[in-house]
Amino acid sequence: MARYYLGVDGGGTSCRIRLADAALNTLADAGGGRSNLQIEDGEPAFRSIMDGAREAFAKAGIDFSETANTYACFGMAGGRLPSAREAFEQRQWPFAKVRVYDDIDIARAGAHGGRDGGVIIVGTGSAAMALVNGTRHQAGGWGFPIGDQMSGAILGRELVRRTIEAEDGILEGSPLTKAVLARLGGTVDMIMDWAFPKDPRGPLPADDKGPSTLLGRAPAEYGALVPMFFEFFEKGDPVAKELMALELSEVDKYVAWFKARGVDKMAAVGGFGTRLYPLMQERYGDFLVLPKHEPLHGAVILAQQNFPN
Questions:
Q1: What pLDDT digit, counting tens, does each position of 184-200 carry?
Q2: What is the chain's alpha carbon radius of gyration, rounded to the nearest angstrom?
Q3: What residues form DSSP beta bridges with 268?
Q4: Do residue 275 and residue 301 come from a single domain?
Q5: Are residues 88 and 167 in the same domain?
Q6: How far is CA 247 from CA 122, 135, 272, 283, in A?
Q7: Cα–Cα 20 to 30 A to 163, which of 63, 188, 199, 247?
Q8: What is the pTM of this model?
Q9: Domain span at residue 25?
């Protein structure tokens, strides 16, 4: 009887699905829609995975009834809470067995080929996770604006803040801060309008249903400033150099956190993290390694580890 493994890399805006054979050779890849477990109790994620699984089986030329011989592992955005993962596992899946992880777990498994090691995700958000002698350690990933210290969103927010301070004459400006000013409207007043866009609902006051809220830009909109930051950093811009030092100091904290827990190697994933590799290699030497596989293949690896032959 044939045996298959199915891995899912579930993101907030889309998901990817991989079908593999018992030796983890890829048979087919497919895509799906948004897959955050915190959105509508995971219902869109369920539909996305089911649609993507059907596509993957069709591409591989395998009848969908073979899901009964398929062992699945999902790494999901919004999967940090055990209750969310457990509820998602209990849905009516057609697979033989299912295991649900936080998305950082499949990043770690892919980066180290299923072996021990640490990983940092450095993109719009950021987080860290390691496996050491079977013990799982995780930090960060608490979201913007209170967490995600290594993230592009936080760096972008700091860049906007430096731009305002430069215009106020508190700090020295640079070509980068002038470029940010121009991009966001040309004046500090326009930056304020950008940072707190008008919404007909307005801020919501506190009541017995929840706290007061203030509308503001989403993390991805601050993270969108990162390419501009790199452009000016490569030109030697002084503010960009200061912010890069700040960024690397945040990574330093997680490197120290890893080492205190016995981690002997770290990989980085995410668009921002990939751009940081040359600087991190200079800074951390052999402690930093390149990922062996992408997170999607990490999900397939974990499926095999959880449900071996």
A1: 999 999 999 999 887 66
A2: 22
A3: 120
A4: no
A5: no
A6: 11, 28, 11, 13
A7: 199
A8: 0.88
A9: 4-113+292-306
